[in-house]
Design brief:
The chain is α/β, with parallel strands linked by helices. The chain has helices at residues 20-30, 46-53, 69-82, 97-105, 118-151, and strands spanning 3-4, 7-8, 12-16, 36-40, 57-61, 88-92, 110-113.
């Protein structure tokens, strides 16, 4: 778990992959980066879990039984936009440009190809979580300023 100025930063990570071994590996990789990790192996449960869990980042397997990762990205697009910057890293064994470009076009923020490298996964997640935290802090500061303006 990360700290800034002595205070603990709590990160919620959602891992979505239909392969239990991949989920367990990612949970091990990211155990020190999160205050909470929620994993989903049934792709038809992702939208519900996403809304209930309110993650700070999602790692999403691209190729799963319906709905696949692209459809999940499509379905969660408006929810993610309403939450501001909520990063998604797409995971896949597909090295083709079409898969990568489709995922990025649908709003993925990063793309990792399997087999996954522990250090790369951790560093990319850290970077996107840092960006998420900065976005949240900026949003909170803007709301405080707006409230202060209204009270004048």
């Amino acid at each position: 778990m990360n700290t800034i100025g002595g205070s603990i930063i709590r990160h919620r990570i959602l891992v979505v992959d239909d392969e239990v071994d991949n989920v367990e590996m990612l949970e091990r990789f990211l155990s020190e980066e999160a205050s909470s990790i929620k994993s989903v192996t049934e792709s038809n449960e992702v939208e519900r879990v996403f809304i209930e869990f309110e993650p700070d980042i999602m790692l999403l397997d691209l190729h799963m039984p319906k709905p696949d990762g692209l459809e999940i990205l499509r379905n969660l697009r408006s929810v993610r936009e309403s939450l501001g910057f909520l990063p998604v890293i797409v995971l896949t064994g597909d090295t083709g440009r079409t898969a990568r470009n489709s995922a990025l076009l649908l709003g993925a923020d990063d793309f990792l190809t399997k087999p996954l490298d522990r250090q790369e996964v951790v560093l990319r997640v850290r970077n996107l979580l840092r960006t998420r935290r900065l976005y949240v802090e900026l949003d909170e500061a803007n709301r405080a300023l707006e409230l202060k303006q209204k009270l004048r």
